[in-house]
Design brief:
514 residues; MFS_trans_sf; membrane; transmembrane helix; mainly alpha; 24 helices
Length: 514
């Protein structure tokens, strides 16, 4: 634990630390791309008249966020020609990723979905998803490596605040610009959307300037990554494995569709069958990619030692440091901590609509006021972690998240009550921001500085895996048991999390003092 409780003045002064302010900028850069792939792009395609079934396919462009741990080892160890010598390992990759994101957004701005094939827009969206996920890998590694453990909570809070600001700019800000430039559902104007996406791309100049100004983390300045031949071969192997994954996924499309049709009729549950078959398809593609990597090691194109160091050593290190029992306990906590919030979040908008709230009311209360409450909660959570330590605030965040889920039951009973909506959104977003600040600081403390990018990428992918899988069934659960029982169930989902924190708290503090 921290040796003493800091005064409130000392805790608040941490807000102005240069590293904390840097993470605010990087948080904005990380939050900007997401909605340019999802809701903002969906509205653009909707104005063109693209079918909703086609629009939803674009959500796959963000799969890079869920699989970023696959190429995190490349980002962690591979030097970039000229850039690494000039800027250092982390800043070189940050600059490259930011330029890739900026280029991808400009690529999207050059495609008119009313005139060009959607394949081009899809390719641009995939590039943006991959580039943004790469940026997240480097940003997370830089955040952990550039400050000591005591400052991580404020770094996390600043990052969360920036992320929300970025989403606000790419969501409401982009829609405001598009409308201002003269596009609407009645009168589609490609130039308006093009100018809007150019404006979003130009914001990355701020991130690029920040990357050029800041210092490389001290522990990495002396890193010598030579052996270019090894890194080139490693990169080629990665590209071949990715190609095998894509080819496997594409070649099984017809067989998958046939299997869905046959089993869906047989089991009378098309949704469950679809999820199960797609999971098998995903696993099969992953096996194909792994076999390619294995083949490249067998023919000694790359040596086994490099693969072990890049993919196996980070996992071995985690289990060695904490021991098997505590390691599994911590991984269970990572995988389940956000389960109640994410599962509930899937049905939040349908709830507001069913209660009669208008789009303007939802935009004002949920999308705007709620964002500011999340930002305030994140900074307040950061101060509390700095003052009291990670684990107590992690427990507080879990308790508040479960309690605020119960408030949604009151909202259902109140109906179209704007005051109650403000109360629920205030409580939910404040507790969510606080819990996320503590949770990110907790994840940061789990990583080893020798494997920062890989280990954090694994943790951040794991923390949304189970909640997102369950979230896919949220609509079906609401239809079966109703909103009130559903929200009670999500609150009860938080009880195992409280137990895991209680079990891990003493052992984690002894093993990993804060």
């Amino acid at each position: 634990m921290i040796a003493r409780l800091r005064s409130w003045q000392e805790s608040l002064q941490a807000f102005m630390h240069p590293r904390v302010l840097t993470m605010l900028v990087f948080g904005i850069m990380a939050g900007l791309p997401l909605l340019l792939i999802f809701s903002t792009l969906s509205l653009w395609l909707g104005e063109v008249g693209i079918a909703k079934s086609d629009i939803t396919y674009f959500s796959w462009a963000a799969l890079g966020y869920s699989f970023k741990f696959v190429w995190a080892p490349l980002v962690d160890v591979m030097p970039l020609p000229l850039l690494t010598r000039w800027l250092g390992r982390r800043r070189a990759w940050l600059l490259l990723a930011q330029c890739m994101v900026m280029g991808s957004i400009i690529f999207m701005a050059m495609v008119d979905p009313a005139q060009h094939s959607l394949v081009w827009m899809g390719a641009a969206a995939v590039c943006l998803g991959f580039s943004s996920a790469t940026q997240d890998i480097v940003t997370d590694a830089y955040r952990i490596e550039s400050a000591n453990a005591e400052l991580q909570a404020m770094m996390s809070a600043s990052y969360i605040a920036g992320y929300r600001i970025g989403m606000l700019l790419a969501g409401g800000g982009a829609l405001f610009l598009a409308s201002y430039f003269g596009t609407s559902m009645e009168h589609y104007n490609f130039e308006a959307w093009q100018l809007t996406y150019w404006a979003m791309a130009s914001l990355f100049l701020v991130g690029i300037l920040t990357t050029l100004i800041i210092d490389e983390p001290k522990q990495l300045q002396a890193s010598a990554l030579i052996n270019r031949r090894h890194h080139v071969r490693f990169f080629i192997t990665f590209l071949l494995a990715v190609s095998a994954f894509i080819c496997s996924f594409a070649l099984t499309a017809d067989l998958t569709a046939l299997a869905k049709q046959k089993l869906g009729l047989l089991l009378s549950n098309a949704q469950l069958v679809s999820v199960f078959i797609e999971l098998i398809r995903l696993v099969f593609a992953g096996v194909a990619a792994a076999l390619v990597a294995l083949l490249m090691t067998q023919i000694k194109f790359i040596d086994k030692q490099s693969v072990t160091h890049s993919y196996i050593a980070p996992i071995q290190d985690f289990f060695t440091r904490y021991g098997w029992s505590l390691a599994w306990l911590l991984l269970a906590l990572v995988g389940l901590y956000r389960i109640s919030d994410i599962v509930l979040g899937v049905v939040a908008n349908p709830l507001y609509q069913s209660l009669g709230f208008t789009k303007n009311e939802i935009a004002t209360v949920v999308k705007t006021f709620g964002v500011f409450m999340t930002i305030f909660g994140a900074f307040y959570g950061g101060v509390l972690v700095l003052r009291y330590g990670v684990m107590p605030i992690l427990m507080l965040g879990a308790v508040l998240s479960a309690i605020t889920n119960l408030l949604f039951m009151l909202l259902v009973q109140s109906g179209h009550d704007i005051t109650m909506l403000y109360v629920v959104i205030t409580a939910d977003n404040l507790s969510g921001g606080l819990a996320n600040a503590a949770f990110i600081a907790f994840l940061s403390s789990l990583t080893n500085i020798s494997f920062t990018a890989v280990q954090y990428a694994i943790f951040s992918s794991l923390m949304t895996l189970i909640p997102k899988v369950l979230g896919g069934y949220s609509g079906s659960m609401v239809e079966s048991i109703g909103f009130e029982n559903f929200f009670l169930m999500t609150a009860l989902m938080g009880l195992p999390v409280l137990l895991l924190i209680a079990l891990a708290r003493k052992r984690f503090n002894l093993t990993h003092p804060q």
